[in-house]
Protein backbone atom coordinates (compact mmCIF):
# COMPACT_ATOMS: atom_id res chain seq x y z
CA UNK A 1 0.00 0.00 0.00
CA UNK A 2 2.86 2.42 0.74
CA UNK A 3 4.29 1.74 -2.71
CA UNK A 4 0.95 2.77 -4.21
CA UNK A 5 0.95 5.86 -1.99
CA UNK A 6 4.43 6.78 -3.24
CA UNK A 7 3.32 6.39 -6.86
CA UNK A 8 0.33 8.67 -6.26
CA UNK A 9 2.47 11.19 -4.39
CA UNK A 10 5.11 11.21 -7.14
CA UNK A 11 2.60 11.32 -9.97
CA UNK A 12 0.00 13.74 -8.61
CA UNK A 13 1.66 15.65 -5.79
CA UNK A 14 0.69 16.25 -2.21
CA UNK A 15 -2.25 18.53 -2.94
CA UNK A 16 -3.98 15.91 -5.12
CA UNK A 17 -3.06 12.99 -2.88
CA UNK A 18 -6.09 11.13 -1.54
CA UNK A 19 -6.87 7.83 0.14
CA UNK A 20 -9.27 7.04 -2.71
CA UNK A 21 -6.49 7.46 -5.29
CA UNK A 22 -4.12 5.27 -3.26
CA UNK A 23 -6.81 2.60 -2.89
CA UNK A 24 -7.42 2.63 -6.65
CA UNK A 25 -3.67 2.47 -7.36
CA UNK A 26 -3.27 -0.43 -4.92
CA UNK A 27 -6.31 -2.24 -6.30
CA UNK A 28 -8.13 -2.20 -2.97
CA UNK A 29 -10.82 -0.23 -1.19
CA UNK A 30 -10.72 2.94 0.87
CA UNK A 31 -11.96 0.90 3.84
CA UNK A 32 -8.93 -1.36 3.58
CA UNK A 33 -6.59 1.63 3.48
CA UNK A 34 -8.34 3.20 6.47
CA UNK A 35 -8.07 -0.08 8.38
CA UNK A 36 -4.29 0.36 8.27
CA UNK A 37 -3.93 4.14 8.29
CA UNK A 38 -6.34 6.30 10.29
CA UNK A 39 -6.12 9.28 7.94
CA UNK A 40 -4.49 10.77 4.86
CA UNK A 41 -1.55 12.25 6.79
CA UNK A 42 -0.75 8.93 8.47
CA UNK A 43 -0.64 7.28 5.04
CA UNK A 44 1.59 10.01 3.62
CA UNK A 45 3.90 9.75 6.63
CA UNK A 46 4.10 5.96 6.28
CA UNK A 47 4.87 6.25 2.58
CA UNK A 48 7.65 8.78 3.16
CA UNK A 49 9.06 6.74 6.04
CA UNK A 50 9.05 3.72 3.72
CA UNK A 51 11.56 5.41 1.42
CA UNK A 52 14.91 3.90 2.23
CA UNK A 53 18.38 3.85 0.80
CA UNK A 54 18.66 0.16 -0.09
CA UNK A 55 20.78 -2.19 -2.16
CA UNK A 56 23.84 0.02 -1.91
CA UNK A 57 26.95 -0.95 -3.83
CA UNK A 58 29.69 -2.52 -1.72
CA UNK A 59 32.84 -0.49 -0.95
CA UNK A 60 35.57 -1.22 -3.48
CA UNK A 61 38.58 0.55 -1.94
CA UNK A 62 38.69 3.34 -4.49
CA UNK A 63 36.95 6.60 -3.61
CA UNK A 64 36.27 7.59 -7.21
CA UNK A 65 34.59 4.30 -8.09
CA UNK A 66 32.59 4.31 -4.86
CA UNK A 67 31.31 7.87 -5.35
CA UNK A 68 30.36 7.14 -8.96
CA UNK A 69 28.47 4.02 -7.87
CA UNK A 70 26.67 5.94 -5.11
CA UNK A 71 25.64 8.77 -7.47
CA UNK A 72 24.45 6.32 -10.11
CA UNK A 73 22.48 4.43 -7.45
CA UNK A 74 20.90 7.64 -6.17
CA UNK A 75 19.93 8.82 -9.65
CA UNK A 76 18.42 5.42 -10.51
CA UNK A 77 16.38 5.35 -7.29
CA UNK A 78 15.10 8.89 -7.85
CA UNK A 79 14.04 7.99 -11.38
CA UNK A 80 12.39 4.75 -10.25
CA UNK A 81 10.28 6.31 -7.48
CA UNK A 82 9.72 9.81 -8.85
CA UNK A 83 11.98 11.25 -6.19
CA UNK A 84 12.13 14.80 -7.52
CA UNK A 85 8.33 15.05 -7.51
CA UNK A 86 8.15 13.72 -3.97
CA UNK A 87 10.84 16.11 -2.74
CA UNK A 88 9.14 18.99 -4.53
CA UNK A 89 5.81 18.17 -2.89
CA UNK A 90 7.40 18.03 0.56
CA UNK A 91 9.25 21.30 0.01
CA UNK A 92 6.11 23.03 -1.25
CA UNK A 93 4.22 21.91 1.86
CA UNK A 94 7.02 22.68 4.32
CA UNK A 95 5.34 25.73 5.88
CA UNK A 96 2.06 23.88 6.47
CA UNK A 97 3.41 20.41 7.21
CA UNK A 98 7.08 20.51 8.24
CA UNK A 99 6.86 16.96 9.57
CA UNK A 100 6.76 15.60 6.02
CA UNK A 101 10.14 17.03 5.16
CA UNK A 102 11.47 15.83 8.53
CA UNK A 103 10.24 12.32 7.74
CA UNK A 104 11.92 12.19 4.34
CA UNK A 105 15.10 13.67 5.81
CA UNK A 106 15.23 10.89 8.39
CA UNK A 107 14.27 8.07 6.01
CA UNK A 108 16.45 8.92 3.03
CA UNK A 109 18.35 12.21 2.93
CA UNK A 110 20.49 11.76 6.04
CA UNK A 111 21.18 8.05 5.51
CA UNK A 112 22.15 8.71 1.87
CA UNK A 113 24.44 11.56 2.87
CA UNK A 114 26.07 9.22 5.39
CA UNK A 115 26.90 6.69 2.66
CA UNK A 116 28.79 9.42 0.81
CA UNK A 117 30.52 10.57 4.02
CA UNK A 118 31.56 6.97 4.68
CA UNK A 119 33.03 6.60 1.18
CA UNK A 120 34.93 9.88 1.50
CA UNK A 121 36.19 8.91 4.96
CA UNK A 122 37.47 5.60 3.59
CA UNK A 123 39.15 7.64 0.84
CA UNK A 124 40.85 9.82 3.45
CA UNK A 125 42.00 6.76 5.38
CA UNK A 126 43.42 5.28 2.16
CA UNK A 127 45.29 8.52 1.39
CA UNK A 128 43.10 9.29 -1.64
CA UNK A 129 41.38 12.38 -0.16
CA UNK A 130 43.27 15.17 1.58
CA UNK A 131 42.80 15.66 5.32
CA UNK A 132 41.01 18.79 6.50
CA UNK A 133 38.37 18.67 3.78
CA UNK A 134 34.80 19.55 4.81
CA UNK A 135 33.20 16.27 3.80
CA UNK A 136 29.66 17.55 4.40
CA UNK A 137 30.21 20.29 1.81
CA UNK A 138 31.67 17.79 -0.64
CA UNK A 139 28.58 15.62 -0.22
CA UNK A 140 26.35 18.66 -0.78
CA UNK A 141 28.24 19.34 -4.01
CA UNK A 142 27.94 15.75 -5.21
CA UNK A 143 24.28 15.22 -4.36
CA UNK A 144 23.35 18.81 -5.18
CA UNK A 145 24.64 18.32 -8.72
CA UNK A 146 21.78 15.90 -9.31
CA UNK A 147 19.13 18.35 -8.14
CA UNK A 148 20.70 21.25 -10.01
CA UNK A 149 21.09 19.35 -13.26
CA UNK A 150 17.54 17.95 -13.09
CA UNK A 151 16.10 21.40 -12.46
CA UNK A 152 18.15 22.83 -15.32
CA UNK A 153 16.85 20.14 -17.67
CA UNK A 154 20.25 18.54 -18.08
CA UNK A 155 20.90 14.81 -18.29
CA UNK A 156 21.33 14.14 -14.57
CA UNK A 157 22.00 10.47 -14.08
CA UNK A 158 22.60 9.79 -17.75
CA UNK A 159 25.60 7.98 -19.22
CA UNK A 160 28.86 9.43 -17.89
CA UNK A 161 27.09 11.97 -15.67
CA UNK A 162 28.29 10.55 -12.34
CA UNK A 163 31.87 10.28 -13.62
CA UNK A 164 31.89 13.93 -14.68
CA UNK A 165 30.48 15.10 -11.33
CA UNK A 166 32.88 13.00 -9.27
CA UNK A 167 35.93 13.94 -11.35
CA UNK A 168 35.16 17.64 -11.05
CA UNK A 169 34.86 17.33 -7.27
CA UNK A 170 37.99 15.22 -6.93
CA UNK A 171 40.08 17.99 -8.47
CA UNK A 172 39.55 20.03 -5.31
CA UNK A 173 39.74 17.33 -2.65
CA UNK A 174 42.00 14.48 -3.78
CA UNK A 175 45.64 14.00 -2.90
CA UNK A 176 47.72 15.00 -5.92
CA UNK A 177 49.27 11.51 -6.00
CA UNK A 178 45.79 9.97 -6.26
CA UNK A 179 44.81 12.28 -9.11
CA UNK A 180 48.07 11.51 -10.91
CA UNK A 181 47.39 7.78 -10.54
CA UNK A 182 43.86 8.25 -11.96
CA UNK A 183 45.10 9.94 -15.12
CA UNK A 184 47.68 7.35 -16.03
How would you describe what is shown here?
With 184 residues, the protein is mainly α. It has two domains: 2-49, Arc Repressor Mutant, subunit A (Orthogonal Bundle); 51-183, Tetracycline Repressor, domain 2 (Orthogonal Bundle), CATH 1.10.357.10. The protein has helices at 2-16, 19-26, 30-36, 40-50, 63-81, 83-92, 98-125, 135-151, 161-173, 176-183. Helix 1 (2-16) packs across helix 6 and helix 8 runs antiparallel to helix 9 (161-173).
Which strand-content bin applies to the residues? under 5%
In total, how many beta strands?
0
The level-1 CATH class of the largest domain: Mainly Alpha
CATH topology of the largest domain: Tetracycline Repressor, domain 2
Task: Looking at this protein, list some descriptive labels.
elongated, mainly alpha, 184 residues, Tetracycline Repressor, domain 2, Arc Repressor Mutant, subunit A, 2 domains
Quick summary:
With 184 residues, this protein is an all-alpha fold. It is built from 10 helices and no strands. It has helices spanning 2-16, 19-26, 30-36, 40-50, 63-81, 83-92, 98-125, 135-151, 161-173, 176-183.
What does the secondary structure layout of this molecule look like, with pairings?
Blueprint: H1 2-16, H2 19-26, H3 30-36, H4 40-50, H5 63-81, H6 83-92, H7 98-125, H8 135-151, H9 161-173, H10 176-183
Helix pairs in contact: 1-2, 1-4, 1-6, 2-3, 4-7, 5-7, 5-9, 7-8, 8-9
Amino acid sequence: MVEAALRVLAGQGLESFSVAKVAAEAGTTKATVYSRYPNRMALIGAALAHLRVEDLPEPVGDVRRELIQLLDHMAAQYERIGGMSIVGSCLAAEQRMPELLDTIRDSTFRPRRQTFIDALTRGQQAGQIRDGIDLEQVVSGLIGAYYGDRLAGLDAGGPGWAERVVDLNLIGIAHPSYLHGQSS
